[in-house]
Design goal:
CBS-domain; 144 residues; 6 strands; alpha/beta; 3-stranded mixed β-sheet; 5 helices; elongated
Length: 144
């Protein structure tokens, strides 16, 4: 399965935040949109990604700073990026190796979507169910 198939079913909208926005702005945006990460962008340039875990760590370490601490200070810059033509297995392996739960998807050099580990697991389960269905039908049909 290609990553574009996942994006076609879930949508391509990506929530972004400016590097100079506060950690509290990021927390609020993620809570309001029921999402676990934001792309940190400066205009059309991708700076990195900030996750709910990044924000929680900052909150735990220094709760008084979340209103004025810039999100850039907690942004992960070395990120896994997927192409919309990449295979699901390749992206899943990259996510596991890097320990990330969200991956931006790029198409023609532009941000085209975001997939989460939940999206990947759901797609893998769908693929597995389709394979099982095919195998059951094949066995019940006598293999012909």
């Amino acid at each position: 399965m290609k990553i574009r198939t996942i994006l076609e079913s879930k949508g391509r909208r990506v929530r972004c935040i400016a590097p100079d926005a506060s950690v509290m702005d990021a927390i609020t945006m993620m809570a309001d949109n029921d999402i676990g990460s934001l792309m940190v962008t400066d205009g059309d340039d991708i700076v990195g990604i900030v996750s709910e875990r990044d924000c929680l760590k900052q909150l735990a370490r220094s709760p008084d700073t979340v209103n004025d601490h810039p999100v850039l200070a907690i942004t992960t810059r070395d990120i896994v990026v997927a192409g919309d033509d990449d295979n699901l297995a390749y992206v899943m392996e990259a996510m596991v190796k890097k320990g990330c739960r969200h991956v931006p998807v790029i198409h023609d050099g532009e941000l085209a979507g975001m997939i989460s580990i939940r999206d990947v697991v759901r797609a893998q389960l769908d693929e597995t169910h389709q394979e099982l269905k095919f195998l059951r039908e094949y066995i019940q049909g006598g293999g012909a």
